[in-house]
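Two proteins follow. First one:
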Amino acid sequence: MTPDTVSIVIPAYNEARRLPPTLLALAQWRRGCSWPVEVVIVVEPGTDDTRQIAEAAAAQQPNVRVIANAEQRGKGFAVRTGMRAATGAFVFYMDADLSVPLREVGVFVDYFRAEPMADVLFGNRQHAQSKITRHQSWLRQQMGQTFNALLRRLAVAGVHDTQCGFKAFRRAAAMAIFAQQRLDGFAFDIEVLLLAQKLGLCVVDRPVEWHNSPESKVQLVRDSLRMMRDAARVRRLVGEAVLVATERAVPDGGA
């Protein structure tokens, strides 16, 4: 691992339509990068050819690696699998639709270099400097804002956009967080950010360019209710994880 290596983790479930242009964009973008990039595609079993498409790309591009999970457990599980397997000094996870363009990777890496105290960066679509080139529907926007407001009460204080699918970590921070992260569903982002805060890591929200995908996998009402349910569990889960990590860090006989 060299100081500037970047890992990009992409969870993929029934992404046969969106994955091919994403893989092409990644190959073109990587050729212009000044640092090595590995792409880790984590495929969960589905009903289309996502795995075959990913493996065909990996056979042609040595920087692309495919992890095929044995069962479909959810986005949180897929991301956790990829983050634990990533080898880069800076580790990103992002959605297969590239709603945040790849040029933002370089922007985030530059921020890490300029701000050595920053451990975790997460995209915030509500940031005053964010550029939304294609908006969600009015209903999705309103429900998203309401959802995040409720989350701030239930679990994550000071976070205005937990669900933006573009987050970056220094390697040590990623390893510490994802060694303890447990939620498998869409609410895993909440757990990730709360774990980072509980572990004393420096978390910074950053503006991003965002192009909303009309093929979002989130079912507005069903998944929002599930995320609210999981959010209510997050504080207990995170408290247990941090307690265990602290106990492991204390030698036998320690105070």
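Second one, unrelated to the first:
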Amino acid sequence: MWDYTEKVRDHFLHPRNVGEVENADGIGEAGSLVCGDALRLTFKLDEAGRIAEAKFKTFGCGSAIASASALTEMITGKTVEEAEHISNLDIADYLGGLPKEKMHCSVMGREALEEAIANYRGEKSTRAAGNVVCECFGVTDLEIEQAIQENGLRTVEEVTNYTKAGGGCETCHPKIQEILNRLQGVGGTTEPAPRRLTNIQKIKLIEETLEREIQPSLRKDGGDIELVDVDGNRVTVRLRGACLGCTAAEITLRDYVQARLRELVTPELEVVEVE
């Protein structure tokens, strides 16, 4: 029996913002009835450009309902730019955690949000790209790659927990393992192949990598780094603290910051410093 937090139970038994926003500015769908979980998210902006109303409809388990309910609360009052930074881990943390077998519910929430934002901006669906790896649940290679990168997944079992891929007939397990090996540099591959990322996905991964991997290391030595802009594959940053004016700053940017971003986001990135 899975152990659910009080907040998960509360959002399941008393879900917030159920339904559909009329004349919605953004509409996003994720999952499918075939795989047992489906979510439709709609939101509407106010005159100030903030999300004034967000609602959901879902078909799924208690964790799916709770994740969707929490997501509507999390994005209400935010600008679209602020909302797009919400990750599946943020949704799980907001609920006080989810069982590892139910993390795919938070991923479904994040995917629906990305779709709704893309719809609002008139961009192509982020789910349209990619090749289906798991036929049972319709999960693509891009969805698997994103889940691996964003959550640090290391095994096929973890991929299944976060995406459902491989949870049916299991014939796709070798393909999932190949993706894991490629992203982890196993089997003679020293650098992952360029990933097809949307602008939303790219910016989000860059910000998460800076926050999780790079800033803590620089801060140990009294330095810091700030993301200024992302224009295509050109990442503009500003060094702070002890890193500012350091004679080794250029080496730090090229051999550490740029190298890590290329490894964890996409090898096409170029990091440039501004004062």
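SUMMARY FIELD: The CA atoms of residues 68 and 109 lie 6 Å apart. Residues 6-121 form a domain with the Sufe protein. Chain: A fold (CATH 3.90.1010.10).
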